[in-house]
Amino acid sequence: MGPELLHLSAAGVSLVLDCRGPGLPSVAHWGAALDDTEVRPDLPVAAAPQPIGFSVDGAVRVSLIPEQSAGWLGSPGLAGHRDGRGWATAFETTAVEQRADAVHLKAIDATAHLELAIDLELHPAGVLRTRAAVTSTAPGTYWLEHLTIFLPVPERTAELLDFTGHHLRERQPQRTAFTHGLRVRENRTGRTGYDSAYLLCAGTPGFANRGGEVWALHTAFSGGARSIAERTYHGHSALGGGELLLPGEVGLAEGETYQTPWVYAVHSADGLDGVSSRFHTYLRSRPHHPTKPRPVVVNTWEAVYFDHDLARLTELAKAAAAIGAERFVLDDGWFGSRRDDTSGLGDWFVSPQAWPDGLAPLVGAVRELGMEFGLWVEPEMINPDSELARAHPNWIMSTGDRLPRPARHQQVLDLANPAAFAWVFQRLDALLTEHDISYLKWDHNRDLVEAGHPGSGRAAVHDQTRAVYRLLDELRERHPGVEIESCSSGGGRVDLEILERTDRVWASDCIDAHERVAIQRWTSLLIPLELIGSHVGAPLSHTTHRSLPLAFRAGTAILGHLGVEWDLTAASPADISELSDWVTLYKELRELLHTGTLVHADVTDPAYSVTGVVSQDKTDALFAVIATSTSASYPPGTVGLPGLDPGTIYHVRPQPPGDVADGNAAAWGAGLPWCTPQGVRLNGRTLGTVGLRLPVLHPDRVLLVRVTAVSARGRVTE
Ligand code: DGJ
């Protein structure tokens, strides 16, 4: 056994584990940093709830895997049984090993015949990640229902924020009071889901972008998942996460182990921006985080849909190169009988009908134009109308006696079947070997419904999700230079485990900039801008039929990994010229946007939002002032620019081509005084507190503001 109180600390966060027993370790403190001298035996005593009458006698300890035997009467951390026995556990900790900022715990229940292993890691950015594993140590089968890791939060977390959404409107925030009881967000769609809880946040009353204390948890899994927030009347509150298992999905024979997904958690003393900053720093420190400048993409989907034609697509490629694109992605429709979405999935051979000379002429043209070539695939899926389904009907996931209801005319391939896995791997490997492909857009266009192994009929979302991870891992190992985008009918698969093996997420099929403002803002709560695909669409949005000016479409799309999804061959010369200017600006700004700190002002006017990216050395920043409706105030009020260095003087002025303060005031009044190329020079403290007057903007307009340091510590050098 290790020390009785174990202290992990990084970047202003502390986690104190109470390993004094009896039973499993519990979290004595997770929140603002303590120094080692503060971690005294009295710490858990001071915060322990008072034993009350008519409940179990003695102190109740909420461990990482809470148990009834320890007095916890909320939702259990571990649920399972052996034919009705062994359902209640009383684990004893047998080992506590600490290596730098990682802890490994072991525990045993000799009566239930189970072993437990828990890993905890505190990253230098203050991101905690934890997972657990349960092993059966007796003959027979231990049927696991769920294994959920709990992290306690204090009672002052009065509000919860989590996310919901649907196709074309992913990751929309919802706030509720954190009341007594159990709030469970279950995902039963077999993929991460448009409506996944995403980041479950508990915070002090009114926590906001820049203020309040927040504890946030992300369950990193691309199959079934559960995220929970529980508050008991016994004075305990906790967030938890784990995999949602289907009936009979995990049965452990003697010696077999089940491992949970990683559960990520952060504490922020500085509101939601503090949460993002920790996650972004963590993600950027991963060895495989993309570091080469994020290339400007042109994707063919909304330009041509299934109308694949070499001449037309070569023209599109030329137009793409002309505006400065660096990657050309051929979307759905190039293979098998795939002339629409009713057939062909699974037949990963270039269609001789659509591509009589194969893909080589297009790939060659794209490469000659100086762009990378990317290809769309949907490897986990199969159309019943395909050669593959006709040859291997027993490769389709089902409960064994009927096919699941189709969705988009398609079914799911049972990738846990080694033969199906090998076939898909071989086809993808062949495509990547035969063609000069540097990028795959990996799509996944249906929920997993009644998803079982067809032979046994047993539930198989767990096996399928693990098999997909394996497929991606093996493919990346074979083709290390190829980048992969995670798409799932838009943004249905955005989580930190898929991002362990992909380089970009497609945030939504909705590229209407008005809708994208919220989708991108909330997607970026967890992941940084360089991982979020954001495209400039056609003047009339295909998914909402809203008509928006190019400056708004482009000025919001640059706050991500920029792409264009628009038939540029039909765009006007004026649009092409303006779009080229935006592409040039994105290239100039991408290093700032993709390495800087993302900040959001707390704007009280619901018509406006102010998003900024401040360079790590705080000498450069870009702010986007976005209006999505008219304001109740005319003119609107002022806003503080967050995240700047208080003592540095900055030059603040509009950033062309996003410098047009397009609004009524310009037509009927006079210009906004600071909104000129001369701008204003003020220090970061003044800009954060006194702030800038918001411009009068028409709805769905963006004004970009560039903020560059002209002196350090108050002395103007310019
Ligand atoms: C759904 C994706 O989200 C779209 O971008 C596009 O790739 C289509 N699938 C193609 O079928």
Number of DSSP helical runs:
13
In total, the number of domains comes to: 3
Task: Give the radius of gyration.
Answer: 27 Å
Our measurement of the CA-to-CA distance between the termini, rounded to an integer number of angstroms, reads 62 Å
Going by CATH, what is the homologous superfamily of the largest domain? Aldolase class I
Task: Outline the structure in words.
The protein has 718 residues and is an alpha+beta fold. The protein folds into three domains: 280 residues, alpha-galactosidase from lactobacil brevis (Beta-galactosidase, Chain A, domain 5, Distorted Sandwich); 297 residues, TIM Barrel (Alpha-Beta Barrel); 119 residues, Immunoglobulin-like. 19% of the residues lie in helices and 30% in strands. The chain has 13 helices and 37 strands. The strands form seven sheets. Strands 5, 6, 7, 8, 10, 11, 13, 14, 18 and 19 form a ten-stranded antiparallel β-sheet that branches. The chain has an eight-stranded parallel barrel with strand order 20-21-22-25-26-27-28-29, surrounded by four helices. Strands 4, 9, 12, 15, 16 and 17 form a six-stranded antiparallel β-sheet that branches. Helix 7 runs parallel beside helix 8, helix 9 packs parallel to helix 10 and helix 10 packs parallel to helix 11. The longest helix has 23 residues. The relative contact order is 0.08. It is an enzyme of class 3 (hydrolase). It comes from Actinoplanes siamensis. Its EC number is 3.2.1.22.
